Automatic annotation (TrEMBL), chain A:
This is Peptide/nickel transport system ATP-binding protein. It is a peripheral membrane protein. It comes from Rhodovulum adriaticum. InterPro entries: AAA+_ATPase, ABC_transp_ATP-bind, ABC_transporter-like_ATP-bd, ABC_transporter-like_CS, Oligopep_ABC_C, P-loop_NTPase. The lineage of its organism: Bacteria, Pseudomonadati, Pseudomonadota, Alphaproteobacteria, Rhodobacterales. Transmembrane segments: none annotated. Keywords: ATP-binding, Nucleotide-binding, Transport. The keyword Transport applies.
Automatic annotation (TrEMBL), chain B:
It is a multi-pass membrane protein. Pfam families: BPD_transp_1 (PF00528), BPD_transp_1_N (PF19300). Residues 95-298 form the ABC transmembrane type-1 domain. The keyword Lipid metabolism does not apply. It comes from Rhodovulum adriaticum. This is Peptide/nickel transport system permease protein. One of its GO terms (molecular function) is dipeptide transmembrane transporter activity. The lineage of its organism: Bacteria, Pseudomonadati, Pseudomonadota, Alphaproteobacteria, Rhodobacterales. It is found in: Cell membrane. Keywords: Cell membrane, Membrane, Transmembrane, Transmembrane helix, Transport. One of its GO terms (cellular component) is plasma membrane. Belongs to the binding-protein-dependent transport system permease family. The chain crosses the membrane at residues 101-122, 134-156, 176-197, 235-257, 285-307.
Automatic annotation (TrEMBL), chain C:
One of its GO terms (cellular component) is plasma membrane. Keywords: Cell membrane, Membrane, Transmembrane, Transmembrane helix, Transport. Residues 67-257 form the ABC transmembrane type-1 domain. It is a multi-pass membrane protein. This is Peptide/nickel transport system permease protein. PANTHER family: OLIGOPEPTIDE TRANSPORT SYSTEM PERMEASE PROTEIN APPC, PEPTIDE ABC TRANSPORTER PERMEASE PROTEIN. It holds the Pfam family BPD_transp_1. It is found in: Cell membrane. The lineage of its organism: Bacteria, Pseudomonadati, Pseudomonadota, Alphaproteobacteria, Rhodobacterales. The chain crosses the membrane at residues 7-28, 69-90, 110-143, 149-169, 181-203, 239-260. InterPro entries: BP-dependent_transpt_permease, MetI-like, MetI-like_sf. Belongs to the binding-protein-dependent transport system permease family. One of its GO terms (biological process) is transmembrane transport.
């Protein structure tokens, strides 16, 4: 039905796509997988005729029997939304904040002259019902800011399928969502394909998402399709080395720690913190939200303790309290017996023993300082030692970088290299505990595997203890000895990693596990 | 929405309160004895004492403030020392020149700037954009009172289309009044329009890069439809902010422009009052201007909520 | 106009005005404090390249000294705005949501309720007119401008992880503000300074036009225009030239600001490629 043939694309004469060819049949789900920058999204935008200025496409994109690359802008407008619909990655910003959801769904119908205004609203109602937003809780008069991310993505889907297009393109539709929400949105998409005879092109960086959902998969790297075929064949018997590397990285487990954990290093007792949600004005007083609600646990010396939770579970609030950055309203935190007075200035010696690595490899460094100065910043705590330069060099070597990198600026490094620098900065004070707050979430899967290996290696070499915080069970399971599951401010389950993941006791843990997409076992 | 409006209203009241204390302190407390100041160096002590009595300057500063503020709330601004008439009457007369002038100028500025800014944003990088941006660059650099003089030179002296100055009053008909205000309004409006057009353009360009514009295009909207139906309203928030600020600039700017065109507005009044050391009038005009600015800020806050549903908490 | 062209044109214009103002400190063609009625209203040419005004003063000399007055007033006013506004904005951002933040922001709102001209009127009503009034009035008005810009930019930086990293290195709010926040918002402040500088020139002209700025015999562009107004029928040159001087100065500064913004903002630099 849609056929992309030998599609090549340059943007300002930089090649972006080269010889991309694939087909999608009616009612078929095809996955387009690859890491960031592989050209997946550009392929989709070329099919929509929404390429950025300066782009030149050659080859062919045939929808039924029309050649899309030859159409005028006006003809393309008639095809977008009617023949091909599209949804995007970031549901929080994909809807106009000033317009009701009803108006935005109805607009698809009105624009294509498929209905009068009142008919369009009626149909919009039906489509919103279909995507799981019933009239009693989600009237047409709702505004996007009143909905959660998953609900907004449903509105986007309703908008895209309002006219029952032949093809729906979904560009990383669940990447910004929690894993349980992801599972529901994927179910919804699969159901729509089944019932409406629509074809779906699902773009994702996560091969596991495609397993059991897509009929066919095309794997992209550097603007080319390196391999395509039936999903189960590709995932079980990948032919191309790149696909094999992706799959290996996704299921990678670093070598486990060998030292037996010692006495309790970090003790958290009945930690509590409630927020008032942001609300301006003298008369509005929203109810407080219990972000951390009576959390207690021990982290033993030499241990890697995983903390898993979805967004809003309170895991980051807890991490910031442990690091002493934000205050608690109740409970106590002790590091090696010393009290951590969260939110108050901390004695430098205590501060030195606890460092952190954060999620965003781009915001973690002052762009105006050189790497050497960035890494040496924690020396502020104990005074700059006489061998400071040697220690910076040693830290850089420990994380697999060159000591000469200290003279470069941070923008000269890739995301993975930046996380290595962040780890070097955390190591420089020779701490006991490193809090890792989603340290690999922003990284591509192969780089992620490398960083996990590095963390496991450093832990053994320097006798470190980790509190590893993540939303991704796969990742946490790969590195943690013990796992805690956090939900709505409480630790609902904790235990040895294997036990929690294979024999979960709490219903929420079970739901979480069931939602995680898994790759099929490879065939040797 | 009601809660939002109430909380804004409360902050309006607070601002007025603090502003009035500041004005009162600057005019009546800091100079020491206002009566002596108003009469100048050659005044006899008896005359100063008499004036002090006249002005009600006998009590403590706190009591005098309460008296003054209470009077203003009832519309009683005191009696002008030089004109010997209630200040409220003076203000009312003059306001009928200054307020229409500011509104006229704001309307002109908006009518020119918003379409120009949208046009430039829609044709970003094209000839229209370069033309509009060049014109605004020049417009921002032109002082409005100088522009006013050039307008007089061209339209009043050479072409004789408009009067060079003066104001016939509204009794002679609305058209005659508007005609007298046209050159002053243009002089006020064009430099403001240049700023507003730039704000409109950059706000719209910012908006056009948002994800929801891409969503709209994926639905099949043309670029122009996406701009019209989704871009403009989202770009209005920064534009509203600037519009509010501009109204206060226009009121203040009118003070100067009234001097170019010899218009009997608040601006002329306040300068006459300064030269005659009529502090009561100065104080009242300043309070009136500040009141206007604060009210406009309130109106802008309410307009935000009308435009942006996220501010409309039930 | 491209960022580079703006930078060159704006820098050139600003430098020319600055040079004329600096030159007037040591040399002017004619003394501007001496009135020579015999030389009044000379057309341009000869000893008076731009002619003389109705009191026989050399217009070129007046413009040069006027440039000095304008620049001095605007510069000091911007200095006041930066010196008081930036620390206030930084402190407000460092203590977001605290009483300090609230007080700074409410003070800002309060000053914004008094347009610069109204502040000037208030000061003049009490102290009498002088160039100092203009400086104070424009300077006071600049404080909330810089406080707002600094606070807004600093707030977005405070959410970044490198601030957390600095806190983990034991650094306090003051030190983080000075070491991490200020250098990163400096480009924005520089751009804002050029904008406020050009607005200051305009405001000074307006104030001295209505007699609230520099007092005679010191010439200023605004008062030259006020004096030229009665002569507008007979010698339009007197009204046109000071106005052109203002326009070119402000235009130069604005172009410089735009050019600097493009040159200093890495985000824009990336987008331009």
């Amino acid at each position: 039905m849609i056929e992309v043939e030998n599609l090549s694309l340059t943007i300002h004469s930089t090649p972006v796509l080269q010889g991309v060819s694939f087909q999608i049949a009616p009612g078929q789900i095809v996955g387009l997988a690859g890491e960031s920058g592989s050209g997946k999204s550009m392929t989709a935008l070329a099919m929509m005729g929404l390429l950025p200025p300066g782009a030149r496409a050659t080859g062919a994109i045939r929808l039924v029997d029309r050649e899309l690359l030859d159409l005028t802008e006006r003809q393309l407008c008639a095809i977008r939304g009617r023949q091909i619909g599209m949804i995007f990655q970031e549901p929080m910003t994909a809807l106009n904040p000033m317009q009701t959801i009803g108006a935005q769904v109805a607009e698809t119908l009105v624009i294509h002259d498929a209905a009068t205004r009142s008919e369009a609203l009626e149909k919009a109602r039906a489509r919103l019902d279909r995507v799981g937003l019933p009239a009693d809780r989600f009237p047409l008069t709702r505004y996007p800011h009143e909905l959660s991310g998953g609900q907004r993505q449903r509105v986007c889907i309703a908008m895209a399928i309002a006219l029952r297009p032949r093809l729906l393109i979904a560009d990383e539709p669940t990447t910004a969502l929690d894993v349980t929400t992801q599972a529901r949105i994927l179910d919804l998409l699969a159901g729509l394909v089944r019932e409406e005879g629509m074809a779906l092109m699902l773009i994702t960086h996560d091969l596991a998402v495609l397993s059991g959902l897509a009929e066919r998969v095309a794997v992209m790297q550097g603007g080319r399709i390196v391999e395509q075929g039936p999903t189960s064949a590709i995932l079980r018997r990948p032919g191309h080395p790149y696909t094999r590397a992706l799959i290996a990285a996704a299921t990678h487990h670093p070598a486990p720690g060998t030292r037996a954990p010692g006495a309790a290093l970090l003790e958290v007792r009945e930690a509590r913190r409630a927020y008032r949600p942001a609300g301006r004005g003298a008369f509005t007083r929203p109810a407080p939200v219990r972000a951390v609600d009576g959390v207690s646990f021990d982290l033993r010396r030499g241990e890697c303790l995983g903390l898993v939770g979805e967004s809003g579970s309170g895991k980051s609030t807890l991490a910031r309290a442990i690091l002493g950055l934000d205050p608690l309203q109740g409970g106590a935190i002790r590091l090696d017996g010393q009290r951590v007075a969260a939110g108050q200035p901390m004695p430098h010696d205590l501060r030195r023993r606890m460092q952190a690595v954060f999620q965003d490899p781009y915001g973690s460094f002052n762009p105006r300082h050189r790497v050497g100065r960035l890494i040496a910043e924690p020396f502020h705590l104990a005074g700059r030692p006489p061998d400071a330069d040697d220690r910076v060099a040693e830290a850089l070597r420990a994380v697999g970088l060159d000591p000469d990198d200290r003279n470069r600026f941070i923008h000269e490094f890739s995301g993975g290299q930046r996380q290595r620098i962040a780890i070097a900065r955390a190591l420089i004070t020779r701490p006991d505990l490193i809090v890792l707050d989603e340290p690999v979430s922003a990284l591509d899967v192969r780089v992620r595997a490398q960083i996990l290996d590095l963390l496991a290696d450093l832990r053994g070499r320097f006798g470190l203890s980790y509190l590893f915080i993540g939303h991704d069970l796969q990742v946490v399971r790969a590195i943690a000895d013990r796992v805690m599951v956090m939900h709505a401010g409480r630790i609902v389950e904790q235990g040895a990693a294997e036990q929690v993941l294979h024999a979960p006791r709490h219903p929420y843990t079970r739901e979480l596990l069931a939602a995680v997409p898994e790759l099929p076992a490879p065939i040797a | 929405m009601l809660r939002y409006a109430l909380s804004r209203l409360l902050s309006l009241g607070l601002s007025l309160l603090v502003a009035s204390v500041v004005v009162f302190a600057v005019i009546e407390v800091i100079p020491g004895d206002p009566a002596a100041f108003m009469l100048g160096l050659n005044a006899t002590p008896e005359a100063v004492a008499a004036l002090r009595d006249d002005l009600g300057l006998t009590g403590s500063a706190g009591l005098r403030y309460l008296d003054w503020a209470g009077g203003m709330l009832r519309g009683d601004f005191g009696v002008s020392y030089t004109y010997r008439v209630p200040v409220a009457e003076l203000l009312a007369d003059r306001l009928w020149v200054s307020l229409p002038l500011a509104v006229y100028a704001l309307a002109l500025s908006t009518a020119i700037a918003l379409p120009a800014g949208m046009w430039a944003a829609a044709r970003r990088g094209g000839a229209a954009d370069i033309g509009v941006m060049g014109a605004t660059q020049l417009g921002i650099a032109v002082p409005n009172f100088w522009f006013a003089m050039l307008l007089v030179l061209l339209f009043a002296v050479n072409l004789r289309w408009f009067p060079a100055g003066g104001f016939p009053g509204w009794d002679g008909g609305v058209m005659a009044g508007l005609k007298a205000l046209t050159l002053p309004a243009i002089a006020l409006a064009l430099p403001q329009a240049a700023i507003l057009a730039r704000v409109m353009r950059s706000a719209l360009i910012e908006t056009l890069g948002q994800d929801y514009i891409r969503s709209a295009r994926a639905k099949g909207l043309t670029r122009a439809q996406a701009i019209r139906r989704h871009g403009v309203r989202n770009a209005l928030i920064p534009v509203l902010t600037i519009l509010g600020l501009q109204f206060s600039f226009l009121l203040a700017g009118a003070i100067i422009i009234e001097n170019v065109f010899y218009l009997p507005g608040l601006g002329r009044l306040i300068f006459q009052a300064i030269t005659q050391r009529d502090l009561i009038v100065v104080e009242s005009v300043v309070m009136l201007l500040v009141f206007a600015v604060i009210c406009v800020t309130f109106a802008v806050d309410i307009a935000y909520a009308a435009v942006d549903p996220r501010l409309r908490r039930r | 106009m491209s960022g580079r062209a703006q930078l060159i044109a704006g820098g050139g214009l600003s430098a020319a005005v600055l040079a004329a103002a600096a030159l007037s400190l040591v040399w002017v063609p004619h003394d501007v404090t001496v009135l020579e009625i015999g030389q009044r209203l000379r057309p341009p040419g000869g000893a008076f390249p731009l002619g003389t005004d109705q009191y026989g003063r050399d217009l070129l000399s007046m413009l040069m000294v006027g440039a000095r007055v304008s620049i001095a007033v605007a510069l000091v006013a911007v200095g006041i705005g930066i010196a008081l506004g930036v620390p206030l904005g930084l402190m407000a951002a460092a203590n977001r949501g605290s009483w300090l933040d609230e007080v700074v922001m409410r003070l800002n709102d309060l000053i914004f309720a008094f347009p610069a001209l109204v502040i000037a009127i208030l000061i003049t009503a009490v102290l009498g007119p002088s160039a100092l009034n203009a400086i104070l009035a424009i300077g006071i008005f600049n404080i909330p401008v810089f406080a707002r810009v600094a606070r807004g930019a600093a707030l977005s930086l405070w959410t970044l992880d490198f601030v957390l990293a600095a806190r983990l290195a034991g650094k306090g709010r003051l030190r983080i503000s000075a070491e991490h926040i200020l250098p990163n918002i400096a480009p924005l402040l520089i751009v804002q300074a050029t904008i406020q500088f050009s607005l200051g020139i305009l405001a000074e002209a307006g104030l001295s036009y209505v007699g609230l700025g520099a007092q005679p015999p010191t010439p200023s562009w605004g008062r030259m225009l006020a004096e030229a107004q009665t002569m507008i029928y007979t010698a339009p040159r007197l009204a046109v030239l000071p106005g052109l001087a203002i326009v070119l100065t402000v235009l130069g500064l604005n172009l410089l600001g735009d050019g600097l913004r493009d040159a200093l903002d890495p985000r824009l630099r990336k987008a331009a490629r």
